[in-house]
Please model this.
Amino acid sequence: MSLHVSAALLEKYRTSAPRYTSYPTAIDWVPESFEPANYADELKAAANNTAPISVYVHVPFCEQMCLFCGCNVVITRSTDRVDRYLDRLECEFERVGDTGIGSRPVHQYHWGGGTPTHLTPDRMLRLQSAFDDVFTRTEDSESAIEVDPRVTTLEHLDALAQMGFGRISMGVQDFEEDVQVAINRVQSIEQTRMLVDGARARGMQSVNIDLMYGLPHQTLEGFQRTIDVVLDMRPERVALFHYAHVPWMKKHQTALDMGVAPSSEIKLEIFLRAMEAFTEAGYVYLGLDHFALPDDELARAAKAERLHRNFMGYTTHKGSEMVSLGVSAIGEVNGCFAQNFASDAEYLDAIDDGGLATKRGHRMSDDDRLRRDIIMGIMCNGVLDTQQIGADHGVDVNTMFADELKSLEPMVQDGLITMDANAVRLTELGQLFMRNVALPFDRYFAARSAGGRDGDGTFSKTL
Model:
């Protein structure tokens, strides 16, 4: 896949926009629509359903801060602090279990962070036991965990295999030494390869590697060397993220020297060359910034236009409710989004108070659900099927969204989409701008823009 994006096209469409792991995005939740104290009741109501669910567990700990990081992390080497957290996390599992939600089978299970393998293998097994006391995975469930090659040992891999994890996802960002020093994440090719090989030797079916472009000292030639190493490892999935520089939100990012970061034009060229390299090597471009080998379930789902998206990223599980545990974790049950307290101190206090740790949430309206289906169709499968969505929601999409559809007409002229009465479809070039195509259907984003508060300062650039 070799694409050219002109400077004029980049200037026209390069803007800040959500990545749409959910709709509405978390910054647009309406507090009045949801009462945190009632989250247990929402779980009890959801327990009456029998459909499989997803479960996410947040382990926030890291040994040191990566300067590019935008995640909710706790930097510590204190085992006492880790154990205090695990004590409360076990309590949260018990209280979630008391709602009956554990009667529903789990078909997607994920540990994120932070660095879950910051925990010792014994502590990981302890946490897994808390999960097993409440939930049961389906035989074909997808169990994945984020790991850091710098702290993950073969003993960790032994424990993960024992716990039934079939996929590991690891951050690399860039293998060039000057980039790694600049972002305070120095890891060798040998460390990373050991982990990839070790996971496969233990029967894990899938490896994901995260890369990032837009970091200090990155060059076209240097990033190509990183791509060559990754291709030699041949992970089943690759994520190629655009670095979001938001030092007003993440203070540690002020330590990055963005004066030696690549320009917008070079960043785009890095991405396009990476896309070409991965597709020429046999990977399927899923859209946004993800690639997968053709026999990966995500690639098969994308081909069949049945790819979906949730807080854990791309998935094959449509409409799956998600129970999320741990500090800052976001879940979705019974038509509501719910998020735990974002600081570990507040999280611990909330659990000590005898309830759940829910801080805020949002109950979706009918309009939210309709727009979510439109946006997720664009973001996941590159199509807005106006007839199908209209039938699903009992509306005439072409009439109800006449203004939004009209706003897309310049994108037809620019070769980003095709459009008729039945569907809007992204072209190959348009896949690069899928967030731009989705934006007109986001009424919250439109309201912020009308008030002079667009995505700048909150969301990453579309390219």
Summary: The chain is about 40% helix and 20% strand. The longest strand covers residues 137-147.
